[in-house]
Write a structure and sequence with these properties.
Membrane topology: Multi-pass membrane protein
Strand content: 15-25%
Order of helices and strands: EEEEEHEHEEEEEEEEHHHHEEHHHHHHH
CATH architecture of the largest domain: Up-down Bundle
Radius of gyration: 30 Å
Helix content: 40-55%
CATH class of the largest domain: Mainly Alpha
Keywords: Cell membrane, Disulfide bond, G-protein coupled receptor, Glycoprotein, Membrane, Receptor, Signal, Transducer, Transmembrane, Transmembrane helix
Protein name: AGRG3 protein
Shape: elongated
Main location: membrane
Distance between the termini: 80 Å
Structural class: alpha+beta
Number of strands: 16
InterPro entries: GAIN_B, GAIN_dom_sf, GPCR_2-like_7TM, GPCR_2_secretin-like, GPR1/GPR3/GPR5, GPS
């Protein structure tokens, strides 16, 4: 018996070397913990430390009379090892357990190896998962659960695996069944309502464009709003089709549906960015919007750029089946989306792309807010000085620039139901908010009164820009 934790200079590594005879007639029990090194465990010993159960069948199948068992306990926080790219789950106590028997690789065991990871009662919304380090996964390796069965308990989790390698217990954030089903119901209902209001919004924008058809700036603004609302309509429709059909579709059809959903999401983000660019041109570069076929060029960007991104993602096979599970490992929904093997595509094309758009739009929102406050004292905007109307217009502009999507970043690595509910409700009802904002902002009460849209357009170019 050798405790290399007492002799090795490498902090965070503790190893047990144990010689076992091939003719062993009993199972081998070993204890381990994150603070103490591994040691041989008698059947009568009790404690709160982790346990390793090596079945005697492992040793009887070996050719040599005596084999060496090596059990290594690693603290990956101190060693900086076994870190998966874009890993959101936590490793229990930062502890990784390595087991080798003899000099050959052991796999396909009929009587599995059992590892008991001792822990207190886990927080609500966290699912334990037994995994091992798969060096062939990705470029630098990653965690895999193939061949391992997880049996959660109040005082520990038992992992039964059919091979020997480096193991750990991942704590994955997840949802309980009732919360997940309620969120899906809220999202489905909200998407249906948002689709109806998106149609109302498009009809209202067409009506206003016809009424003020000689005002080019107004027509461009309304054209942008129509395209943004149209992308929201397609996104809600794609989500409803995805959640309803993905569980019954062929793999090839699922890839197409996943690419379509991704395309609609990117279109929504792109048109949100174009709304921010338009506001920047109106407030900073006032004459910059007078471009030949300006709206047509914006449409080419808004609907064409996502085609390139989705095309590249489709070529590398990023789309396929994606499932969402509860804490009880119950699959609540099947989706056709970016597969778990290509999460880097999701982080770059969705999270990274929207993050840049959000930073730009929030800078534009700050400029718009400052300009609007400076214009509130002018005579042409006396009709818009009511505090509730100013607040409503600011909130609508905030929503128009896609700020509600930033809540998606708060849902990573946590399972807070209030945040998830807020994200689901605000984004599924984004079409309603934009409709109310457009009605309050653009619909004039009278034809030619100071403060009405037509009066401002005709008499004050600066105030036209603010509108």
């Amino acid at each position: 018996l050798l405790q290399s934790g007492q002799h090795s200079r490498l902090a965070g590594l503790k190893t047990l070397l144990l010689n076992v005879s091939r003719a062993v007639t009993h199972d081998v029990l070993i204890s381990f913990s994150s603070t103490a090194g591994p040691s041989r465990l008698n059947t009568t010993d009790k404690g709160n430390t982790g346990k390793i159960h090596l079945p005697r069948g492992i040793f009887q199948s070996l050719s040599s009379q005596t084999v060496r068992v090596v059990v290594t306990v690693l603290n990956i926080q101190q060693l900086g090892m076994f870190k998966e790219v874009n890993q959101t789950a936590q490793v229990l106590d930062n502890t990784v357990l390595g087991i080798t028997v003899g000099e050959s690789s052991i796999s396909g065991l009929q009587d599995p190896v059992q590892l008991t990871f001792a822990h207190r009662q886990l927080p609500h919304g966290v699912t334990p998962q037994c995994v091992f380090w798969d060096s062939s996964k990705g470029q630098a390796g990653g965690w895999s659960s193939n061949g391992c069965v997880t049996q959660p308990g109040d005082k520990g989790t038992v992992c039964s695996c059919d091979h020997l390698t480096f193991f750990t217990l991942l704590l994955n954030p997840s949802l309980d069944g009732s919360t997940a089903k309620t969120l899906m119901a809220v999202a489905t209902t909200g998407c249906g309502i948002a689709m109806a209001f998106s149609i109302f919004t498009i009809a209202f924008c067409i009506f206003i464009r016809c009424r003020f058809r000689f005002e080019e700036t107004l027509r461009i603004n309304l054209g942008l709003h129509v395209n943004l609302v149209g992308s929201l309509f397609l996104l809600n429709l794609a989500f409803l089709l995805n959640s309803g059909l993905s569980a019954r579709t062929h793999l090839r059809t699922c890839r197409v549906l996943g690419g379509l959903t991704h395309y609609c999401l990117l279109c929504c983000f792109t048109w949100t960015a174009l709304e921010g660019c338009q506001l920047y041109l109106l407030f900073v570069k006032v004459l910059g919007i007078y471009i030949h076929h300006y709206l047509a060029k914006l449409c080419l960007i808004g609907w064409g750029f996502p085609v390139l991104v989705v095309g590249v993602a489709g070529v590398i096979g990023s789309y396929g089946e994606f499932s969402i599970q509860t804490t009880d490992h119950e699959v609540i929904v099947h989706l056709c989306w970016i597969t778990s093997k290509h999460l880097l595509v999701h982080y770059i094309t969705n999270c990274g792309y929207f993050g840049l758009i959000f930073l730009f739009n929030m800078a534009v929102f700050g400029v718009v807010t400052q300009k609007s406050c400076s214009l509130l004292g002018t005579a042409a905007v006396q009709g818009y000085r009511k505090p509730w109307k100013v607040a409503l217009v600011a909130a609508g502009l905030f929503c128009l620039l896609g700020a509600t999507w930033v809540l998606a970043f708060l849902t990573y690595s946590i399972s807070s139901p209030p945040v998830l509910y807020l994200f689901t409700i605000l984004n599924s009802l984004q079409g309603i908010f934009i409709f109310i904002w457009l009605v309050v902002l653009y619909y004039p009460k009278t034809k030619e009164t100071p403060g009405s849209l037509s009066y401002i357009i005709r008499h004050d170019k600066t105030t036209t820009v603010s509108q």
